[in-house]
Amino acid sequence: MLKKLYRHEFHALFRSLWPLYAGLLVLALLSRLMDMSFFDRRQLVVQILYNSFMSLYVLGIIAMLIISFAVVIVRFYRHLLTGEGYLSFTLPFTAGQHITCKLVCGVVAGLVSFAFTVLSLLILSLGTGFIDWHGFFAGLWQLLGSIPAWQAILLVVEVVLLIPVALCQSLLMFYVSMAIGQQCKNRIGGAVLAYLAIEAALQVLAFAVIMPLSTQIMPLIDWLSRMTGIEAALTGLSTALGISLILSAIYYLVTRHLLTHKLNLE
Amino acid sequence: MNEILIESRGLCKNFGALPALQNVTFTLPKGRIVGLLGPNGSGKTTLLKLMNGLLTPTAGTLTIGGHPIGVETKKIVSYLPDRNFLSPWMTVEQMCTYFADFFGDFDRARADEMLAQLQIDKTRKCKTLSKGTQEKVALILAMSRNAQLYLLDEPIAGVDPAARDSILRTIVGSYREDATILISTHLIADVEPVLSDVLFLQYGHIVLQDTVDAIREREKKSVDALFREVFRC
Questions:
Q1: Does the pLDDT value for residue B233 go beyond 70?
Q2: Which domain holds residue A260?
Q3: What are the structural domains of chain B?
Q4: Can you give the pLDDT at residue B170?
Q5: How large is the average pLDDT for residues A248-253?
Q6: DSSP state, B20?
Q7: Are residues A53 and A1 in the same domain?
Q8: Tally of structural domains, chain A
Q9: Are residues A84 and A18 part of one domain?
Q10: Do residues A107 and A231 share a domain?
Q11: Closest to A4 (Cβ–Cβ): which among B74, B79, B102?
Q12: Among partner residues B56, B85, B89, which is closest to A86 by beta-carbon distance?
């Protein structure tokens, strides 16, 4: 049964995203074609077309990343907090299962959007020096080879984990804001205010944590200076991962509580 | 068919300081068509939402089929809210598939038959249907389930008299003796012919629960006339 919930969720999300991905690939392909040797780049028409496609391509990447994120957020709002919520919340699932499903599908949509961005860059740079892929991977390999194996593995694991976890945190912050916002008469206004309030609370909290540390600034500098570059990177990534996981858990639990006990559908 | 299906004991629901339901206690057996009757703001929709788990009670207990409200009760309750719940981008056919996927008791053949009877094009997207047709599709979806309990919130409000007849025919046509239908409405005269029992709700209290026959015999008047008398402003 849960599989069907995920299947429907993926279908609902990707029906809006596939055209965006296709559009981006077409723009990358057109830009690459205009850069082919059989077109005379000195001709004004070719220059105009090439520059137009390149500009559209760059705009396309930005638009796709923003739109795909917006599609995920709007899907959560419409499917759970508007009239559609009357059906969604009477399906034989808990609020937690609904949130997890939306989150997993949202993160997958984010990763797929990222993958299509990389794919379009590959198309654009195919057979050109537009992006030095060889140099990039050679440098990465060299970096990983220059540090102990356990550090290299940990670095890769942390980077690979941080991307979906940070995406989870961003999405859950929107979810919790919308769950708080639905308690207000003006739901969208309430959600925007809740988002800003959470952001402000995080800033205050960060300041409250950093302030006491500033009195220990010398030992802190001393501690950091004893670290190698890679150790500092690993510590930074672990800290970011830990904070992201804690915040994600808090947002998730608050959203689940509100949608279970304080649901206020339109 | 006197097996208890719904049991509510001391059920209360407050919205902030405002009480919407106060100490609501009643039981409903299987095999009845019950009118949940009351003026606007009497707590009918709140009670239905509590039965669906869309709201959590402030106090008291509520069970359906012996289960507290949750995933188990959602499997046996079919709900028609007073709002449009259809996904605008889906076709009627896709909505049927959606119901069939999530409700094991959804009868696809019955849904197709009712859609055909009402001449509703299954290939059309829900957003392209008129408001009245959307309401009919929602009703067909809800009534095509072989549920134990049907909760219908104002199914005939906002539709023309001809559509009301068609909706009531659909409800009565879908009735099974092992199921209970609870219809919330303030349009008593229209639903009275199909009701077997009534629950009168006023200011969040149950003020009357009886069979339609008993009311007519005792009061020598129709339920509609009694309603007008009880709720006269």
A1: no
A2: 140-266
A3: 1-73+179-233 (3.40.50.300)
A4: 80
A5: 97
A6: E
A7: yes
A8: 2
A9: yes
A10: no
A11: B102
A12: B85
Q: Give CA–CA dist A102/A179, Å, rounded.
A: 14
Q: Which residues of A touch B (CB under 8 A)?
A: 1, 4-5, 8, 12, 15, 79, 83-87, 89-94, 260-263, 265-266
Residues A124 and A144 in one domain: no
Q: Is the pLDDT reported for residue B103 higher than 80?
A: yes
CB contact under 8 A, A86 and B83: yes
What is residue A37's predicted lDDT score, i.e. its pLDDT?
Answer: 62
Instruction: With CB atoms and an 8 Å threshold, state whether A86 touches B87.
Output: no
What are phi and psi for residue B76, nearest 5 degrees? Answer: -115, 0
Beta-bridged to residue B6, according to DSSP, are B28, B64
Place of tokens 């049907």: B150
From B143, B136, B135, B213, select the one nearest B175 (Cα to Cα): B143
Residues of A in contact with B98 (CB under 8 A): 8
Distance from CA of B103 to the nearest CA of A (A): 8
> Which of A96, A131, A166 delimits the end of a domain?
A131
My answer on whether A122 and A202 are in the same domain is no
* Cβ–Cβ < 8 Å for A92, B53: no
- Predicted confidence (pLDDT) per residue in B161-207, tens digit: 777 887 888 888 878 888 999 999 888 888 888 899 999 999 999 99
Question: Is residue A113 located within the same domain as residue A3?
Answer: yes
Same domain, A20 and A121: yes
> Which position has the token pair 């104002």?
B154
Task: For residue B71, list chain A residues with Cβ-Cβ distance below 8 A.
Answer: 92-94
Q: Supply the pTM of this predicted model.
A: 0.88
